[in-house]
Amino acid sequence: MSGVDIHPEELFDKLASGELTAGERARLMAHVERCAVCRFELQLRADIDEDVERRTLTEPPQLLTELPTGER
Predict the structure, then answer these.
(1) What is the mean pLDDT of the chain?
(2) Other beta carbons within 10 Å of 5
(3) Residue 1 above 50 pLDDT?
(4) What would the pLDDT profile of 54-68 be if each residue is shown by its tens digit?
(5) What share of the chain is helix, strand, coil (3-state, %, to 5)?
(6) Whole-angstrom Cα distance, residue 7 to residue 29?
(7) Cα distance between residue 31 and residue 1, in whole Å
(8) What counts of helices (H) and strands (E) characterise the chain?
(9) Whole-angstrom Cα distance, residue 48 to residue 67?
(10) Does the global pTM surpass 0.85?
(11) What long-range pairs does 34-43 form, CB within 8 A, spacing at least 24?
């Protein structure tokens, strides 16, 4: 990229949703190769996505069916 290299933050969301064009992917990857901040953000997003996928609720949480009245 010529001139000022601006962080392509809008492309991270498009990458996550699978909406990047080939040109956008090339731009993002070229930037990430040079930018430690964006490499960190890309890895952090991947780690969070992986963690969310691993976590599953085995049983729904119990909800209060009645409000406590304060009586004992």
Answers:
(1) 82
(2) 12
(3) no
(4) 776 566 667 767 777
(5) 55, 0, 45
(6) 11
(7) 8
(8) 3, 0
(9) 35
(10) no
(11) 34/5, 35/5, 35/7, 37/7, 38/7, 38/8, 41/12, 42/12
